[in-house]
Write a structure and sequence with these properties.
This protein is of the alpha+beta class. It has 13 helices and 20 strands.
Length: about 500
């Protein structure tokens, strides 16, 4: 290969799994209140992270995903059954696909390739062979890949100068038979439906959308970069989650920006991960956090796990409390106890991570802003006898009031203020009762919501999935002592056009 870069690999290795493209699912019922569907996420206990089994992704075949298997509400997702088990992994268990030093690099016979109807596209970091006709959207793929390399370097902490000569060879296939005739589809590759990456080479089948074609190239390129520069990709949830995370992108025809949450279905045709999660939430088949972490190598033979792994990677990478820890994980990809180390890194705030996962799954939209929707679950202080006031920002999700309310005590909540809930076609001004010209999840846009998260809660799902309407004012009486949280009613994908604040007075009421 042209790179001459030596991996930090192991002889016990396997190629990366393929990515699976699925059409976007239909819209879930976004008007249904959250309180209707709390049962599905109850698998996360409140006692901290379980010891997770470390699984070997080398068994993954890259087979096309089969039809989804039915799952019951409250069980961890559809199809595969991930397991959280006690104790250490069995001896010799490996956690991820790794570089394969025993596999020789491909040698392309240019004349034979030309006779098979293939042409060559050259970039600094990618040589791409394809049988597709010349087309601007195809011919820019090497440029997209070249622009991805410095972004991979920055993300994984690799010196860009050390990767200056790093290079992969890719094969973009319209007709598989042409590549077989050219000797460019090795017999030892497992069957795959969309894409496959091994060492310094990747294979892609043509896709029905230009976005997904680019995404698949970036997804398999991420596997290739991790295998050849880090020596491996980590356990299945991390391997596929990070590949999806860095493959979701925005392309303006000149520059590619990776690691973005697509703003709309139209911006990311055929990707479908957000639609999948919305549908599974609506059906009562949402995946628990521990279920995602425990995926084994067979899980990604179906499309659903790609969605859940992307969502978890997006939460961990974009959440301000988790990002720095998550960005330290690349150094652990060759560790057989990767998942246990991950659990230890998050042990002190594991329950808060579980709650933030539940909030993301229940509220995920195109353009979802993880940072604005991040919730601080630290317990509040006792409310003064005279009460207190809380300032609530209109451009954020659930906000910790900082005050603890007592069980059985009545409190009067009174809200005031004027704030912006949209800026198109002009500024939409709103007060705490919301605007009835537009509804979100069955309630007026911008109306004030509240919830009390108990200090000790027998329900493993956060109380923030069961909000109450506050509006201009309401008297509440918590069943259990806990911290008061407040927010306005709006989509997690539409907070960036909000502005301003409202003030909420919280006053304990004397018994009659």
């Amino acid at each position: 290969m042209a790179s001459g870069v030596e991996p930090v690999g192991s002889a016990h290795a396997s190629a990366t799994d393929s990515s699976a493209a699925e059409p976007d699912g239909g819209e879930a019922d976004r008007s249904a209140p959250l309180v209707d569907r709390p049962e599905q996420l109850r698998r996360e206990g409140a006692g901290g992270p379980a010891h997770l089994e470390v699984v070997d992704s080398s068994a993954s075949s890259g087979n096309p995903p089969g039809p989804e298997q039915p799952a019951r509400p409250g069980r961890p997702g559809a199809g595969s059954q991930p397991r959280a088990v006690p104790g250490e992994a069995s001896a010799g268990a490996d956690s991820a696909s790794r570089f394969q030093p025993h596999v020789s690099p491909m040698v392309v016979d240019a004349e034979r390739a030309a006779r098979a109807g293939l042409r060559r596209l050259d970039g600094r970091h990618l040589t791409l062979w394809t049988d597709l006709a010349p087309d601007p959207e195809v011919d820019i793929l090497t440029r997209v890949f070249d622009q991805a390399v410095p972004q991979w370097c920055e993300y994984f902490g690799i010196d860009a100068a050390a990767a200056a000569d790093w290079h992969m060879t890719g094969f973009l296939m319209g007709e598989r038979a042409r590549f077989v005739r050219a000797g460019l589809l090795p017999e030892d590759l497992p069957p795959f439906k969309h894409g496959y990456s091994r060492n310094y080479e990747l294979w892609l089948y043509e896709q029905p959308s230009t976005y997904y074609r680019r995404l698949l190239l970036l997804h398999e390129g991420t596997h290739g970069f991790m295998n050849t520069r880090l020596g491996g990709c980590g356990p299945p949830w991390y391997m596929e989650g990070v590949a999806e995370l860095l493959a979701t992108h925005r392309w303006d025809g000149k520059r590619v920006v990776m690691n973005v949450v697509p703003a709309s279905r139209e911006e990311s045709p055929m990707w479908g991960r957000i639609g999948w999660i919305q549908d599974k939430w609506a059906e009562g088949h949402a995946m628990s956090l521990e279920g995602v972490l425990a995926y084994d190598a067979r899980a990604h033979l179906e499309p659903g796990p790609y969605a859940w792994c992307w969502a978890l990677a997006a939460l961990l990478d974009h959440h301000p409390e988790y990002r720095d820890r998550f960005r330290r994980l690349p150094r652990l990809v060759l560790k057989p106890d990767f998942n246990r180390r991950f659990a230890r890194m998050f042990a002190d705030d594991w329950q808060q991570l579980v709650y933030n996962w539940q909030i993301l799954v229940a509220n995920l939209e195109y353009g979802y802003d993880v940072q604005r929707m991040a919730v601080d679950f630290r317990p509040g202080q006792p409310l003064p006898g005279a009460g207190a006031s809380v300032v609530v920002a209109a451009d954020r999700g659930w906000q910790n009031s900082g005050w603890r309310l007592e069980a059985g005590q009545q409190y009067l909540l009174q809200a005031s203020g004027r704030y912006q809930v949209d800026d198109e076609p002009k500024t939409w001004w709103c007060e705490p009762n919301g605007v009835t010209i537009r509804y979100y999840r069955g309630l007026p846009l911008g109306i004030l919501l509240g919830a009390v998260q108990p200090d000790v809660d027998p329900d493993p799902t956060t109380a923030l999935l069961r909000p109450i309407t506050v509006g201009l004012g309401r008297t509440i009486e918590p069943e259990r002592a806990g911290t008061l949280f407040l927010r306005i009613n709006d989509s997690g994908g539409s907070l960036d056009d909000n502005a301003g604040t409202l003030t909420v007075g919280v006053t304990p009421q004397q018994p009659p």
